Amino acid sequence: MRRLLYTFLLVPSCLFSQQFQKVDFKTLNATLALDPSHKKISGQVTYTFEVLSAIDTIRIDARNMAFSNLKVNNAVTEFKNSGKELQLYKGFKKGKNTLTFEYEAFPKQTLYFIGEKEHLQIWTQGQGKYTSHWLPSFDEVNEKVVFGLSISYDKDFEVLSNGKLKSVSDKGNEKQWEYQMEKPMSSYLVMLAIGKFAKQTETTASGTPLEMYLSKEDASKFEYTYKYNKAIFDFLEKEIGVRYPWGIYRQVPVRDFLYGGMENTTATIFSEDYVVDEIGYNDRNYINVNAHELAHQWFGDLITATSGKHHWLQEGFATYYALLAERELFGEDHFNWQLYEIAERLQQASKTDTIPLLNEKASSLTFYQKGAWALHVLRENIGAKNFNKAVKKYLEKYAFKNVSTANFLAEINAVSNYDTRKFQQVWLEQSGFEVAEALGILKKNKFIEQYLNVLSMAEKPLAEKQQVFAETIVSDVYYPVKEEILFQLQSVDFSEKEPIIRQAMQSNNIKVRQAVAKTLNQFPESFRPDFETFLDDKSYVTKEIALNVLWSQFPDDRAKYLDKSRNWIGMNDKNLRILWLTMALATKDFEPEHKPAYYDELLDYTSPDYESSIRQNAITNLLYINGNDTNVLKALVNPLTHHKWQFSKFARDKIRELTKKERYRLYYLELLPSLPDNEKAILEKLLNP
C-alpha cells in the first residue's frame, strides 16, 4: 500500500518534469485584486509559452481556484480544472503561444490576511512549492518564468512585490502598483506584502537601491533593525564576486511570519521579532537572518537546486555566507565561535539523526548547518582564493538555471586537486558529523583553544583552576570563555567565587554580565546593590532575569522592584510588561485597587488582536497565576486555528496536557457547542483522539 501511494504521489512530479522538457513558459503578467473581508484574491493572467515538442496536456498548478474566460491564442478554449491543476489540452500549437484567463481563490494557506482595518497586513509565503495556492503557477522549481504583477489596493496602504516598481497610478480610493521582473525565477519566490509601512532607502557601493520597510508604528526602529544593512550587501557582493543580479532589493517585516525570513526574489519578508530598538538589538537582531536571506538572492534565486536532494546548495550556502558576513563585521573569534556552536549542535543531533546531507529528507539542521560546515571544510582545504574562483564560475555558468551538487563540485575540481569524491562521501553522503576534522580546523583559532582549555576544567575543584579563572576573567579573551567560567562557578559557594564574580561584574560586555545574572540565583544581602545594577543593563533579557531573581529572593521589597520596572515593555513579545503584570497580580497587597485593570490588560494580550508571541506569553503567565481560570482556558482554543504552526502546536500541546485531568476535559466538552465550526472541529479531535 505504501509503495502504491508513493507511486501515485510521484505522478504529478513526473508529468511536470516531462512538461518542462516539452514546454517553455516565458512570462506571466497578472492584474490582481484582493478582498480582505472575504480573504479572497482574483485576477486576470496572461502567460506566454513555447511548445518545443508534441504534448497532450499542459498543466499549471492551481489549488482550489475557479477559472473563467480562458483563451489560448485569443480563442476561447476548453480546459479542465482538477482542483489542483489547470489543464490545457486544446488550442495550443508548436512554437509561441499566449494563454489568458481570469481566476479567483480563497486560499487556506500561503496568502495570509493578518489583522483588521488600520492594522491589516497581507503577505505571502511560497516556501518551496505553495505559490499555486494564490497564483496559478508552477510547483516545479525547474520551471522559471519572468513575472510581472499589477496589484490594485486601498490607496492608504503600501503594496510590495518582486522586481522594479514601474508605476503607481491612482484609481479613486485605490492605487494600482505595477511591478516587473526582468529575469526568470521559480514560482515559489513570487511575493506580495501589503500594509501600512514606513520606508527608508540607501544605495550600495555598486549602485543597487536598498529599500527598507517597517510598520509605521515601528518607524523609530530603522537604525537598529537594519543595522549594517548596506555593509552586509557590499560585503556579500564583493565576497561572492558576482554582481547582485536583480537590480533592486527590498526588505519588509510582517506580523506572525512563519519563519525567520524568506528570500523572495528582490524582496525578502522577515519576522517582526527582529524589529528592535537600541536595547533589543543586544538581545536579538536581524543581522544573521539579513545576511542569510540576501545570500539566497544568489544561492537559491539566481541558481536553484534541481530537487530537494540538492537543497543544501541553497541553505548551506546561505548559512555559510551569512557567517562570513558576520566575520567581516565582528571578527575571527566571533566567526569561529559560531562554527563551534554549530558543530556542537550537529554532534549532538548525529546521535539520532541518520539522514545524510545529500538527501531530500534531511533535517533543516543538516541542510543549513551541516551544509555550511561542509563548505567551510572545502574552503579551508582548497584555500579561499580557489574557493571564491570556483563559486564565481559556478554562479556565472548556471545563472537563472537549475543546479545539482555535481555542477558545483565540478567547479571545485577545475580549480584544485582536492578529492571531491571523498569529500562527497564523507560530508554529503554519510550521516553523522566529522568531529575530528571540524575540531582540527577550529583549533587553528587561539580563542577556541582557550575555550576548550577552560571547558576541560569543568570537573576540577575550584582550588585547582581559581588562578586561571581569575586571570582569564579580566583578560580581553572573547566573551564565551568568560561565560563558561561563570557557568562552572554556578554551584560554588558565593564566598569562594566572589572575587571572580565582582571582576566579571566590571565587564562592559553585556553577555558576560548576563552570564553573572543567570548563574547567581542566591547571594548575600551585601551583594544585593551590585545585583540590582543588572536592572539598568541595556538588555531586556538581563532585565527580565534580574527582576525575576530580585522579586523572588527579596519578597519584602517586591513593591520597590515593581515601581522600578513599572513602565518597562521589553521586546516584541512584551516580555517585561507581561512579567510585570504577572508579578503585580501575584504580589500580595500591591495596589489592590488596580489589580482588576492589571488582570484585564494581561487577559487582553491573549486575544487575536496581538501577535502570537504576545498571546503565548500572556497565556503561559495567566496559567501560572491560576491554572483554573476559565478565561484563559478558553483563550487556548482560538490559537488551534492559527496559521503559525508553532503557536497552534503550543495550544494543542497545552490542551492535551490539561485534559489528562477530568475537570479540564469536562470544561472543554461543555465549551464545544459555543465555538465556531473550525475551532470546534479541532478541539473535538483533541478531546476524542
How do you describe this structure in short?
The protein is of the alpha+beta class. 44% of the residues lie in helices and 19% in strands. A hairpin with a 6-residue loop joins strand 9 and strand 10 (121-124).
Structure, described:
The protein is an alpha+beta fold. It has four domains: 1-191, Sandwich (Immunoglobulin-like); 196-297, Neutral Protease, domain 2; 305-444, Neutral Protease, domain 2; 605-689. It is built from 26 helices and 23 strands. The strands form five sheets. Strands 1, 2, 4, 5, 8, 11, 13, 14 and 15 form a nine-stranded mixed beta sheet that branches. Strands 17-18-19-21-20 form a five-stranded mixed beta sheet, with helices on one face. It has a four-stranded antiparallel beta sheet with strand order 9-10-16-12, with no helix packed on it. The relative contact order is 0.05. The model is unreliable at 1-12 (pLDDT under 50). This is Aminopeptidase N. Residues 224-427 form the Peptidase M1 membrane alanine aminopeptidase domain. Residues 31-189 form the Aminopeptidase N-like N-terminal domain.
Strand content: 15-25%
How far apart are the termini?
24 Å
How many strand segments?
23
CATH architecture of the largest domain: Sandwich
Cα Rg: 28 Å
The CATH superfamily title of the largest domain: tricorn interacting facor f3 domain
Q: Note the overall shape.
A: globular
Query: What helical percentage do the residues reach?
Result: 40-55%
